[in-house]
Write a structure and sequence with these properties.
Layout lengths: L10 H14 L12 H8 L3 H13 L3 E4 L3 E4 L6 E4 L6 H6 L5 E12 L2 H7 L5 E11 L2 E11 L16 H8 L4 E12 L2 H7 L6 E11 L4 E9 L4 E4 L7
Parallel strand pairs: 3-10
Antiparallel strand pairs: 1-2, 4-5, 5-6, 6-9, 7-8, 8-9
Length: about 240
């Protein structure tokens, strides 16, 4: 299939359809790199702008993904994970239950002073918290950056754990006798920061899902507060609602 420059259809749209056909017929296999821009320019005798427009459309439609500093790759549609919001489970439990390979990179854990935002969440009496920064992977693809705050008073010596392996929820329940009961989540679409874009291997300014979570114990106290930035092409969310008149 070639570009027809006599065709009134825009060149970038023609190229997009050519690349899409190669993805769908298996010529371009999932998790392999798309040919470089200059190769597509030479192969189809079009401008670099045309190539970039075609690639951008396929990225937006979920057929391609840009991995920062690596290139553009064919994306497997089945990589998308759906979180069931009716159940409160740890990251590991949620994804392993749906058959995904998961891993975590613990970037930092440190003690921080409570600022006004954290005092509003945890109360004025909480002055020191652990700040835990993690990068979550789904099927070896970076999917979620999450920043978590836990009061030092309720989880002393939390820094001794390896959070690339250990589950925070499991540790809180097993070693600190914290009984997790419920959570409140707020969702907001935002533009990814430059730092998160590099970690998630997406283009700077790309849209991501900000998920702000407050987790409560069985006495109604907030014992964990987190802000995760999720790639929407990998994670989606599901909730079942009951109709009420």
């Amino acid at each position: 299939m070639n570009i027809d420059k006599q065709n009134p259809m825009p060149l970038y749209f023609q190229l997009k359809n050519i690349l899409l056909e190669k993805i769908e017929n298996g010529e371009y296999k999932p998790n392999t790199a798309l040919p470089a821009e200059f190769e597509l320019v030479e192969q189809y005798d079009v401008s670099r702008t045309t190539v970039r427009q075609a690639i951008s459309m396929l990225v937006n439609e979920g057929y391609l993904e840009k991995r920062r500093g690596v290139g553009t790759f064919i994306r497997k549609k089945e990589k998308t994970n759906t979180w069931d919001l009716q159940q409160l489970r740890s990251f590991r439990a949620e994804l392993e239950s749906s058959g995904h390979k998961i891993s975590t990179q613990c970037r930092t854990i440190k003690k921080v002073d409570a600022d006004e935002e954290l005092k509003e969440v945890f109360g004025e009496d909480v002055t020191k918290l652990y700040c835990l920064e993690r990068l979550r992977y789904v099927d070896d693809i970076p999917a979620i950056c999450v920043t978590t705050y836990v009061p030092c008073e309720v989880t002393p010596s939390l820094e001794k754990y390896d959070f690339s392996v250990d589950s925070l929820f499991e540790i809180m329940n097993r070693d600190y006798q914290i009984h997790i009961q419920s959570a409140e989540k707020i969702f907001q679409a935002i533009k990814v920061s430059d730092q998160d874009a590099q970690l998630l291997q997406v283009e700077p300014g790309s849209p991501v899902q900000l998920v702000i979570t407050k987790t409560f114990n069985d006495q109604g106290q907030v014992i964990e507060y987190s802000k995760s930035r999720d790639r929407g092409d990998i994670s989606t969310y599901k909730v079942q609602l009951q109709y009420s008149e």
